[in-house]
Amino acid sequence: MVALAFATMVYAGTTMETKLYSTNFQDWDAVSSSTTPTTKTFTTAGTNETLAITLAEVAVDPTGTNAKFTNTEVITAGYAMAAKTATPYIETSVLKNVTKVHFVHAATGGNRGWGLLCKAADATKWDTLSTAFCAQAGTAVDIDVNRENVQLRWYNLNSSQNAYMTEMAIYGNMARDFTNFERDLTQNPVTLPAGV
What is the pTM of this model? Predict the structure, then answer.
C-alpha cells in the first residue's frame, strides 16, 4: 500500500527588494542642458510602474569621460552633468516604494557634487537625504530611503560648479504573492509551480 502525501503552501504579501531602475547614462540619448525640462519615461523592473525622470539644466553625454574621474572601481563612461547654477535637478515621478538609492558622482574640482532630496507624493516640502560632496575621482553613495509613495530629486550642491553623475540605481520592494497549490510528494521528481 502506497501512502500519498500532499503539501499545501500559502505565501501572501511577502516582499523582496529589487532594483527598480538603473542607468550609467549610456542608454540615454544625448540631452542638452536647458531650463526647459526634458522627461524620459521607463517601466520599473518587477513592479511595472511608469517611471518618469525629468532633467532641468542637466546635460547627458552617453559616452562622456573626463581624465579627472580616475576611480575606475565606480566610474564608467557616460554621465549627466548639472549646469553651473543653483537650479539643476534630476527628478523622478512618484514611486510606490523606495528602499534605497545608489549613485556615483564625480567632479573636476573640490566641494561639489550631487545632493539628494525626497518627498511624499502629497508633501510640499522636500526632505534632505544627502549633502555630501564627492571626491574628484568619483564617489559611490548608498542611501537608505525606506519610504512609500515617494519622489526623488538630485540637485547641484555648488551653484558655481558642474556636478557629474555617472551611475544611478533605485531599489524598492516588490510583492511576491503565491497562490495555494497541492503537489503529490510521492511522485519523483516533484514539480512546483513557477516562482516557488
Answer: 0.83
CA angle 132, 135, 136 (to 5 degrees): 130
* Cβ contact 37:45 at 8 Å: no
* pLDDT value of residue 185: 67
For the cut 90, the answer to whether the pLDDT of residue 1 exceeds it is no
Half-sphere exposure of 38 (CA within 13 A, CB side): 14
Residues 6 or more apart in contact with residue 124 via CB below 8 angstroms: none
Beta strands in the chain (DSSP E): 6-9, 14-23, 38-43, 50-56, 58-61, 79-82, 89-92, 95-106, 114-120, 127-130, 139-156, 163-176, 181-184
Cis upstream peptide for 189 (omega within 30°) = yes
Instruction: Name residues whose C-beta falls within 8 Å of residue 123's C-beta, 6 or more positions apart in sequence.
Output: none
For residue 111, count other CB atoms closer than 10 A to its CB: 11
Per residue in 143-162, pLDDT (tens digit) is 999 999 999 999 999 999 99
Taking CA 68 as the corner, what is the angle to CA 67 and CA 72, rounded to the nearest 5 degrees? 80
